[in-house]
Amino acid sequence: MKVLVIGGGGRESAITYKLHLSKNVSEIYTDSENPYIRRKAEKIDYEDLDDLVMKAHEIGVDITVVGPENPLAEGIVDKFREKKLRIFGADKNSAKLESSKIFAREFIARNELPNHKFEIADTLEQARKKIEKFELPVVIKYGGLAFGKGVYVCFDRKDIEKAFKDIFETKKFGESTEGVVIEEYLEGFEVSLMHFYDGNVLAQMPLSHDYKKALDGDKGPNTGGMGAFSPVRLSNSDIEDLKSLSKKLGKALNRETLNYAGVLYAGLMLTKSGPKILEFNVRFGDPETECILLKLKTDFYEILENCIRGRMDPTSIVWDDRPSMCLVIASKGYPKKYEKGIELENLRELEEKYSDLNIFYSGIMETDSTFVNTGGRVLAVSGIRENKEELIQRIYSFAEELKFRIKYYRKDIGKTEKF
Ligand code: AMP
Ligand code: GLY
Q1: How far does the centroid of ligand 2 lie from the alpha carbon of residue 96, in Å?
Q2: Does the pTM of the predicted model rise above 0.90?
Q3: Are strands 358-361 and 377-384 parallel, antiparallel or unpaired?
């Protein structure tokens, strides 16, 4: 079978890796220049989305898998479907669960899913009035897509003013009048619960913990994710709560006819009064995917195929119980300003030395003789192993040995526990 992977980061490197292992997959195609992906996939050159659809048609691609949120929000799935091409990803309407924080909160409220106090405001004037209903700390979220960067956890008036200024005055996230969601601040342990979805049934993937803040001890600004670890140690009541949540989610999706073949990701806060939904994504998380897909024992292609056919059987999906982890190596300064074009001097040698790990590439480009960084997140160093301590040590040993002048990574991935 021929598979096209859309997107060129660490997540798509992991997706490509798993597809490459599948006995069902003969050829993989990519729309990206990512050197890791290019080793396993052929690049399709195209001008715009219509051209890409045409090329996929000409090649006879059997299935397309979409990694990032932007193409989903822009309707790539609808375009492929119009041409009768089979695709794993949310259609434009369902993608609102991720692309509109307002749609997501209203969906949660309408369907009586675990909720917390929130208000929606369209204008600065409304937002100022509504925020008075909340105690500090309070959370302000830009209503549209902002790649995890439109969320402000505000501890005082100064933080609130900064959020309002960015969103309504300097319009940091765009001119559109997406408005804001104001939310009660939740305390607890944050987890990522991803599901495969066949348009009818949800199948839970193993739970993981994503380290979203830039600095150790969950300090500093929010990032796209600095690392991930699975499993998350849970109590029996947590497990029951999560099962029941997935069931309710499935019913809510069906009730609202949000039916697609793809992933539903719920970002949850496990609080003392049970799990609460922070956000939805309609795609694989990054870096969770680099960590979670290593646990998948069932043929990945078969799952995608069954989701697209609407006949996935959750009980047939088998997962490895061993701990898995992903450590993101970033460019110093990320998620703010950082240098680009800096060499990763010994990457090739280290890949050989650490062949027991999966060194997925995020923001990297290959030049004639070496690799240089092109993005904030550079490598997603991932692995799976029986012994948790050995796994952590092995991954950190790679990170220490890497010669990259502006190297930055968190030192506490895999070392924190719930509560
Ligand atoms: P979101 O994109 O909505 O998941 O928000 C980004 C991050 O902000 C989350 O991963 C949390 O760490 C934090 N966050 C969002 N909403 C809340 C909330 N209501 N209470 C506490 N932290 C939150
Ligand atoms: N790691 C969080 C996300 O993919 O949105």
Answers
A1: 16
A2: yes
A3: antiparallel
